[in-house]
Input
Amino acid sequence: MSMTAHATVRPDRTPFSEARAAELKAANINPRTGLATDYMNHFNEAVMLLEMIPDIPECAEDFLLWHPLSYAEHFTASNFSARDLAISAYEEADVGVRAEFDNVTGTMTAILVAVHEAMRETQQPTTRAKLAEQAVGWVRPLVAAAGGIINGGSEGDVDYIMSH
Output
């Protein structure tokens, strides 16, 4: 992806101004995608709790306290210092990138909600442990895929990330 001296070119080829790109970068928001990795903390928390359930069955109760949040809901509820910037950058993100990201995070949310409902239905520790193990196997690769989308996801983007 080409870079100009005065702008960061987003995937839709619409440049953020140099000042806006610098503002996004300073806030840990990818200036090429307009997305922040902080949102992945929401899913990583659920995965961490699920990973603990087979060894510590009481963690199922903690997982049952987890609830899905949209990108904007996550940042609105967070202590992320640039939460308004994160929300506006997401809204300004390339439609295709945002759709791909929303598809992956929507799939993660659907899996976690289904596992959440199934765990509510059973009190059996062995069943909860099996559900947790299966969910981790499904969600962990999706977390990685979402991270790839946030960070640009192509070889050219890796070069960009490594040089900044």
